[in-house]
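hi! just following up on the protien thing from before. the input was this:
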Amino acid sequence: MELFEALKRRRMTRSFSLEPLPTSIVSKLVYAGTRAPTGANLDYRLFLVVDDIKIISMMKTLSPGFPGPPPLVIVILTDVNRAATEGGELGRTHSSIFDAGAAAENIALAASDLGLAVCFIKSYPEAAIRKILEIPAGFRSEIMVAVGHPGTNVKKPVPKRRETIFHNRFGALTTTDLQSANFLRE
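and the predicted 3d structure came back as:
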């Protein structure tokens, strides 16, 4: 699939079938996450793959935004000490969070390419998730990506959003900008 087709097809969903994902697919999704950039090309990001339905069910009971339940959750973690040591305070507090988002989006695009659905999850109590997943001190979960085949209760795409593309200065739209924005909606 072409990148722009994957961008067009990518959707967040809270409805998944329980059909397990083969290891080859899980490997592709994690590979996509590892290909995302990090601030200053630092190596402080880790991935925790959760496919045990009992653990996923425990995670769901703690999180109001958890879909459910998916057959797979990829938890994107930061080695906080390494991020601070190699990237300074900015690496620990900001860059690692942005980098986790880039990894999550790569996973979402790979899932779209593979005909799968995803949901980003951040509304969870960190301490409880740390305990369930046995995440040691010095590591922080940044975001969880639920992945699976779309369920039967998938919502329609979001309605068109207001225009947010400007040229050279805030509020300035040109004919070229509008044509470009129309390309994005095709």
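The beta strands are 45-50, 72-79, 117-121, 139-148.
The chain has two domains: 3-154, 156-186.
cheers
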